[in-house]
Amino acid sequence: MAERSSFVVVANRLPVDEITTPDGERQWRTSPGGLVTALHPVLTEHGGTWIGWAGGTGEAPEPFDLEGIHIHPVPLSADELERYYEGQSNATIWPLYHDAVETPVYKRRWRETYRLVNQRFAQAAAEVAADGATVWVQDYQLQLVPAMLRELRPDLKIGFFLHIPFPPIELFMQMPFRAEVLRGLLGSDLVGFQQRLAAQNFVRLARHLLGLRYEGQSIQVDGRKVKAGAFPISIDTKEMERLAADPKVQARAKEIRAELGDPKTIILGVDRLDYTKGIELRLKAFRELLSDGKLKVGDAVMVQVATPSRERVEHYQSLRVKVEREVGRINGEFGRVGVPAVHYLHQSYSKQELAAMYVAADVMMVTPLRDGMNLVAKEYVACRGDTGGALVLSEFAGAATEMRQSFLCNPHDPDGVKDALMRAVAAEPAELKRRMRVMQRHLRTHDVAQWARTFLDALEAAAEGRDPEPDGVQST
Ligand code: ADP
Ligand code: F6P
């Protein structure tokens, strides 16, 4: 009998991934992505059980405890990995929910496996949750879990949070098993989104697709009320500030500047290598500014960290080719011996090394075509202390709703991106500090603990039929 918990998080990934080193040794390492960054400190504080996939295929490792969290791995076979994770989650739903910036692929067998794997996660949650427990289901990979879990365990309080955007009705309607996905989500007591507009899309969709009645953000389903609301996710601000102020990180930041040749301006990008992140357009903007003579190699250098991600999915393979071709082109045209224009790093780093990069960078470029939130933007702001620094931020990142003192740009407009970058490069230090201070103040009160608290309070109220309008949105 599995250990039973009063607080259970169900996510596709566990906070750690089991990997096999080149010497055949099995090791655990931190999982990639914003979901883990956000939820790890929440679970460390609350305790409870985290149900998720451990990163490999075949039998799941035995449950174990990690930093006060009970880890409950769920197995995936190689076929399931291909169909549920790479296929339905990351070649169908991911592009569709991100404005279809790449064409979504629809396959019947992927949907069938998605259903099967969602049922397995729901079953695991049903076994692990104590009577009346709170179960918090995460993200687009597990949208069927809330309804499946309610069927198995009607006594539970079930919350769902979508970390990525929720599409407008006309895009959602493309999906072949759209009604099933919507019914899956409606198994929750509370469905949380990053943005108000996403929550509105959701309640309107419930009426459009299933003819359900709603009032405000509350939908009537089978005699129950399901609430929808916006809860912009955030970071562990204090921890990020502490890390950035650490003398070792400060020293490493100086070393990075020196290694880059002490240029006037270091421009940094840090992303999973994902086509939603706008990495190519940012490189192109940099190339054109070098070509226009507005930036000069030696004075300015770009560092692009591109974390390996979903490497067997075709969209990701072609993106890698395009990005690496563009980096080669820029360095070929503008670099000199020992002085490349772009440093491209297709690697994962420790939190300390990333913080040192943030501290070293004068300009941070976050230019997604669409992004649920983008925690990198918030991490950069939290790391800047009193030193200013400029954040160039896409209007299409969720973070743009809050980080209003950034240099906002439309990533679809190359001249707009170039203009924002040049304004950031040329801004006076006093202005940069003023902008940073406002955003930092916001992050101190709107951190990940506040996000989790707001969501879980609203879930409690929704499950008990109390009525405060759930909403956590506020801008700087
Ligand atoms: P997403 O969830 O789409 O990956 P976010 O920007 O919200 O995007 O979150 C990314 C998270 O992954 C951040 O916490 C960031 O610090 C971390 N990260 C990004 N690149 C790397 C890397 N190369 N090594 C380690 N962590 C990384
Ligand atoms: O929120 C975006 C997200 O898909 C998370 O669900 C996930 O943890 C992260 O990006 C990284 O993606 P993946 O788990 O596919 O490596």
UniProtKB/TrEMBL annotation:
Signal peptide: none
Taxonomy, superkingdom: Bacteria
Pfam families: Glyco_transf_20 (PF00982)
InterPro entries tied to this protein: Glyco_trans_20
SUPFAM superfamilies for this protein: UDP-Glycosyltransferase/glycogen phosphorylase (SSF53756)
Family stated for the protein in its record: Belongs to the glycosyltransferase 20 family.
Protein name: Trehalose-6-phosphate synthase
Taxonomic placement: Bacteria, Bacillati, Actinomycetota, Actinomycetes, Micromonosporales
